[in-house]
């Protein structure tokens, strides 16, 4: 497959930067996150978020893409100061997660204007902060797409066409990748290389992974160190198989820290684990050159905003 060149810019919370400036990138993570599905485990401490970013920077990190979408405690106004203080580029998301993460009133208030909200956050800024989002986050369901997923993905496709922003997709337990691509790319006309599939490694089906890569989408192998998701011990097999099949330019790596206890500064693996353990392990099996591309060149292309 021919690699897609990095065009346009990456929209960070401090402004637009050339894709090559993103540096070593954690392609899927969270500095702040709140959900009724995770009571008492919220990511809300700004001091801890700053310490986590600094820890990531200390092991060579240059950029983090926060996938926390609309209505889930993004704390967008805090992101610029954290990015400035640590020297780490931060990309903020708009978008909408599964319905279970929201109250009925919030969802009802978005009916008929969801794409408009996404576009406004990408172009004008999130609320009074003026910080503009750089990626659209949506979510599929377990082995399929419900009405909520179709609604949010339809709005995401409309916002993508208006802004050129990439679409990042939460795959529930790693399933439903082909259904997502059928909808976004088949029915809604989004080019596959503008779609980033998250959590595909949680369902370690090498056939589906290859089909998704062959379609042209980016595959984010994220959430390492979670034994129940088979992310660490099966990740090298999936990455190697895809690389050997010619899809090394489709791969991304992310930490996906979603609860406070998973931060490195709170005793968990956190963002630095990607560079301290995951990267070196993959380099032993796949070579440093490929792993370097996965951390640098691939996210520079995947998260570039191609403004129309």
UniProtKB/TrEMBL annotation:
This is Phosphotriesterase. The modification N6-carboxylysine is found at residue 137. Keywords: Hydrolase, Metal-binding. PANTHER family: PHOSPHOTRIESTERASE-RELATED, PHOSPHOTRIESTERASE-RELATED PROTEIN. It comes from the Bacteria. Pfam families: PTE (PF02126). SUPFAM superfamilies: Metallo-dependent hydrolases. It comes from Streptomyces hokutonensis. The keyword Aminoacyl-tRNA synthetase does not apply. The keyword Hydrolase applies. Belongs to the metallo-dependent hydrolases superfamily. Phosphotriesterase family.
């Amino acid at each position: 497959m021919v690699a897609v060149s990095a065009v346009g810019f990456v929209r960070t919370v401090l402004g637009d930067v050339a894709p090559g400036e993103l540096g070593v990138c954690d392609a899927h993570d969270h500095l702040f996150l709140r959900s009724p599905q995770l009571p008492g485990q919220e990511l809300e401490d700004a001091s801890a978020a700053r310490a986590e970013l600094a820890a990531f920077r200390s092991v060579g990190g240059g950029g983090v893409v926060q996938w926390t979408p609309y209505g889930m405690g993004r704390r967008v106004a805090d992101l610029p100061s954290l990015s400035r203080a640590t020297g780490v580029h931060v990309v903020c998301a708009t978008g909408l997660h599964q319905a279970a993460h929201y109250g009925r009133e919030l969802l009802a208030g978005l009916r008929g204007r969801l794409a408009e909200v996404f576009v406004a956050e990408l172009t004008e800024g999130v609320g009074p902060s003026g910080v503009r989002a750089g990626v659209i986050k949506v979510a599929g369901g377990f082995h399929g797409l419900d009405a909520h997923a179709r609604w949010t993905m339809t709005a995401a496709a409309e916002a993508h066409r208006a802004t050129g922003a990439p679409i990042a997709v939460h795959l529930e337990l790693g399933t439903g990748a082909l259904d997502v691509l059928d909808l976004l790319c088949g029915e809604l006309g989004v080019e596959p290389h503008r779609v980033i599939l998250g959590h595909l490694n949680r369902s370690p089906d090498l056939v589906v992974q290859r089909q998704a890569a062959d379609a042209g989408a980016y595959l984010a192998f994220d959430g390492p160190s979670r034994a129940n998701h088979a992310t660490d011990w099966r990740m090298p097999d999936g990455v190697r198989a895809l690389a050997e099949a010619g899809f090394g330019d489709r791969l991304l790596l992310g930490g996906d820290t979603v609860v406070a206890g998973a931060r490195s500064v709170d005793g968990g693996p956190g963002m630095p684990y990607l560079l301290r353990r995951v990267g070196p392990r993959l380099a032993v099996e796949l070579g440093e050159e490929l792993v370097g591309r996965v951390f640098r060149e691939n996210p520079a292309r995947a998260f570039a905003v191609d403004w129309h």
